[in-house]
């Protein structure tokens, strides 16, 4: 209990590190050792009340929303610099608290953190927060106002990335934030908030209260919050949306996915499939945008499975602290149990395990699942319908006699629509297929959109609203129209 980064005793509320209202603590369990890795106090509804009260005062009495965009941008730029200084700490903590492989932790857990603060700092220096619209003798002033107090609820798989995606645009818009990290990964959030404090973010604008589902629901329903920004499961998102609906509260949701990679008949399978398999193992498959359905022409199906099986078997699995390891453990025992149940169910339904489908024999401790490739999967199977959040890819054959029509039909036959990919020897052909997919983002031949400059979010049950890009800022703004008398019309 000597590591100050891993054992915390306070919350951050109203610009100060304060004692919790309860003596309850939340123990963080290492997914690789199954032992306690750290500890934080567990927030109660009283702590949420204090945090929301501080944020509410920052809206109602503070000056942040009335500062110039340039002044807010300066603070965001300083925050980006402070976050860069702490990237190693954030990466190390996420390896301990949620099992992210050290080989990926720097890029995966901090790669889109500081740059997001930099992006919104630059955006608001030129963003048009006000404009005048004229129509004959009449004129109106259209203003963009902060939505108010934001409750930001983030998941455990990319805790600081997703905290940044909410906090940076909220602050840029002039909104204070109450941040509730997931119980599995609260420790890295402390380093995140310490960086914002060091950057000079004024008191009340960022508040940190780790807790469980009860306090999360209290934050959502609290009359002092004006908007909830949530990333997590679709089931939790439905609950949050329902609660926000009772109050007509603003809400943005980035939820689950069951994304598909389409391999067209002219794709170089020997090159493409190892890339697809490797991508599916990122964060041990615990990624909302993971391409867990791989659609392959029926005429090349067995060839594809053989390549995929070999690629999965070659992925290094083990202790996430080992720099040679790519696939670490799943975040919790319950998560491994769920993944194993879905795989067993798929095999019972007629799928075959081409690779994996079991626990790695050399890892008796830790919540590991071997990289798994499932063949003979049909799109109506449960394994092809539900988000799995594990290192498991389902290969689904499609009829390529009509070009890509059957592949597009299968890819779009999902309740989700978050991400996807298309691979072809002809990039223009791949782009044409990508345009037909009902999903929020598509990679063409492995080329992903340039985040954070473009929006990220989903169609259908993958969520509502967008993060990143100008759209991410606008989700924290309310539009207001003011009629201007003739004497105030510019140029009149």
Question: How would you describe the overall organization of this protein?
Answer:
This protein has two domains: 11-255 and 462-481, 3-Layer(aba) Sandwich (Aldehyde Dehydrogenase, Chain A, domain 1), CATH 3.40.605.10; 260-444, Aldehyde Dehydrogenase, Chain A, domain 2 (3-Layer(aba) Sandwich), CATH 3.40.309.10. The chain has a seven-stranded mixed sheet with strand order 14-15-16-13-12-18-19, with helices on both faces. A six-stranded mixed sheet has the order 9-8-7-10-11-21, sandwiched between helices. Strands 5-6-22 form a three-stranded antiparallel sheet, with no helix packed on it. The protein is an alpha/beta fold and 492 residues long. Helix 1 (45-60) runs parallel beside helix 8. Helix 6 (159-173) links the parallel strand 7 and strand 8. It has helices at 45-60, 69-85, 87-98, 102-110, 114-126, 159-173, 187-198, 213-221, 234-247, 269-280, 301-313, 333-348, 382-385, 405-412, 427-434, 469-474; strands at residues 11-13, 16-18, 25-29, 36-41, 130-135, 138-146, 150-153, 177-180, 206-208, 227-231, 250-254, 260-263, 293-297, 352-355, 372-375, 392-398, 416-417, 420-423, 443-444, 459-460, 463-464, 477-484.
């Amino acid at each position: 209990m000597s590591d100050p980064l891993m054992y915390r005793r306070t919350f951050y509320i109203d610009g100060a590190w304060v004692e919790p209202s309860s003596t309850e603590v939340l123990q963080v369990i290492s997914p690789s050792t199954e032992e306690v890795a750290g500890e934080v106090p567990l927030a109660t509804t009283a702590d949420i009340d204090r945090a929301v009260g501080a944020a509410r005062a920052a809206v109602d009495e503070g000056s942040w929303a009335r500062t110039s965009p340039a002044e807010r941008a300066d603070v965001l730029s300083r925050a980006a610099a402070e976050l860069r200084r702490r990237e190693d700490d954030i990466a190390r903590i996420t390896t301990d608290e949620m099992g992210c492989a050290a080989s990926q932790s720097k890029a995966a857990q901090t790669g889109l953190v500081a740059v997001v603060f930099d992006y919104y700092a630059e955006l608001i220096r030129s963003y048009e927060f006000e404009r005048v619209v004229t129509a004959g003798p009449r004129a109106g002033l259209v203003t963009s106002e902060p939505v108010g107090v934001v409750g930001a609820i983030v998941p455990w798989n990319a805790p600081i990335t997703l905290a940044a995606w909410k906090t940076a645009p909220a602050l840029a818009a002039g909104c204070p934030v109450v941040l509730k990290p997931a119980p599995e990964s609260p420790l890295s959030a402390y380093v995140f908030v310490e960086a914002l404090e060091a950057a000079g973010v004024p008191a009340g604008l960022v508040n940190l209260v780790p807790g469980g589902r009860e306090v999360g629901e209290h934050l959502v329903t609290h009359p002092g919050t004006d908007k909830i920004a949530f990333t997590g499961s679709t089931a939790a998102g439905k609950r949050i949306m329902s609660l926000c609906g009772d109050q007509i509260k603003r809400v943005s949701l980035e939820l689950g996915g069951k994304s598909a990679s389409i391999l067209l008949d002219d794709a170089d399978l020997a090159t493409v499939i190892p890339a697809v398999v490797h991508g599916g193992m990122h964060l041990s498959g615990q990624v909302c945008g993971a391409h867990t359905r791989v659609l392959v022409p029926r005429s090349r199906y067995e060839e594809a499975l053989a390549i995929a099986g070999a690629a999965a078997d070659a992925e290094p699995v083990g202790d996430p602290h080992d720099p040679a390891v790519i696939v670490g453990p799943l975040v919790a025992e319950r998560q491994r149990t769920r993944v194993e149940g879905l795989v067993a169910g798929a095999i019972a339904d007629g799928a075959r395990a081409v690779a994996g489908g079991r626990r790695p024999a050399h890892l008796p401790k830790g919540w590991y699942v071997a990289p798994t490739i499932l063949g003979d999967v049909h799109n109506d199977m449960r394994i092809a319908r539900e988000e799995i959040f594990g290192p498991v890819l389902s290969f689904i054959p499609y009829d390529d006699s009509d070009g890509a029509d059957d592949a597009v039909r299968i890819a779009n036959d999902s309740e989700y629509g978050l991400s996807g990919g298309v691979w072809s020897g002809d990039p223009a052909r791949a782009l044409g297929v990508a345009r037909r997919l009902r999903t929020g983002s598509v990679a063409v031949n492995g080329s992903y959109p340039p985040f954070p400059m473009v929006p990220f979010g989903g169609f259908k049950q993958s969520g509502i609203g967008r993060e990143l890009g100008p759209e991410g800022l606008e989700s924290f703004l309310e539009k207001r129209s003011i009629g201007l008398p003739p004497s105030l019309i510019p140029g009149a």
